[in-house]
Amino acid sequence: MTPIVSVEQVSKSYKEQGPLVLHNISFDIEKGEVISLLGKSGCGKSTLLNCIGGFEDTNTGQVLLEGTVVKKPSKRCVMLMQNYGLLPWRSVLKNVELGLEGMELSKQEMTERAKHYLEMVGLADNASALPSELSGGMQQRVAIARALAIQPEVILMDEPFGALDTFTRYYLQDELMQIQQREKMTIILVTHDIDEAIYLSDRILIMKPNPGEIHKEISIQMAKPRDRSDADFQHYREMIFKEFQFTNVKAEIEFNI
User: What pTM did the predictor assign?
Assistant: First the structure.
């Protein structure tokens, strides 16, 4: 079976003859997987995500979506970011419908689909509210509903819960996991939060900087939903901490820091 996403020997720099931001990155993602790109700021996580979504070109290598080379953004692969991207003058319902505009749907079909996904994220009763009347966590749920309503093949998430308080972040992680398992979505998540990566992911790709490369892949062999206090969870947490300590030592040796 063809992977839903294939990243093939991707390298990226922003200036001609400039330093590489990404170097020779390759991996496949199967349909329905949740993959986290984990690493410190500056390791190229967001750049890689943008290349996968077609928002940025690669210098060498290519990204394939179900066997087709990605050359530009499309509604087959939707980006969900930290700042929500809601239009303040449009109601919650109209913000979800925004992603459906331009599709071959009648007005009634657009509204019914938007309401369906608002109900899925628990915001059916807030359809007429403006974004300013919602909490940060509720606004992010609107953004999730808008992404789901498009029914993309892949959802890209760039630290979507990073600006939220701990309790809201945990709640939305639970919501996302339930929706993902129900809808069998494929998700690629950029995060620097180790616990978030373990809690949500089937596989974690640990990235190291200068240039950005995949340092190690870790498969999380735990059933979902997961318990953050479980011994297996703590085992993976310790394993990942050790990997980051290793990359730090290696960087000090290589660059004489």
Answer: 0.88
* Cβ pair 10, 214 in contact under 8 A: no
Decide: 61 and 7 in contact? Cβ < 8 Å. yes
pLDDT tens track for 80-106: 876 778 899 999 999 999 888 888 889
CA–CA dist 12, 19 (Å, integer): 9
Pair 24, 10: CB distance under 8 Å: yes
